[in-house]
Amino acid sequence: MTPDHVFAALASPARRELLRLLLDEGAQPAGRLAERFDMSRPSVSEHLKVLRDAGLVAETRMGRERHYRLEAAPLMEIRDWLTPYERFWREKLAGLTTLLDEMEDDDHAPRQDG
Known about the structure:
By secondary structure, this protein is of the alpha+beta class.
């Protein structure tokens, strides 16, 4: 799956919440997941399908139930993709901290009147 598919799947707050539930509470049937949302069960199933197609969840059939579990590998790929940007912002924030420290030092330096 491409990062574009994963980002598209993560764009929905409902799908992010489904992932959070699976992370916090472990694998569970679709029906139990659907109970947590104020939407129809078919709508939750459609969200789960998008997550499955993006490789973010795996589906196992147990009798008539479909159980879903989190698959973290695509999230690791996204993390790897974001890492250079994290370094970029960390460097920018370090520069800002340095600038603010210098400004504070200037504010506390004795003034010389001409």
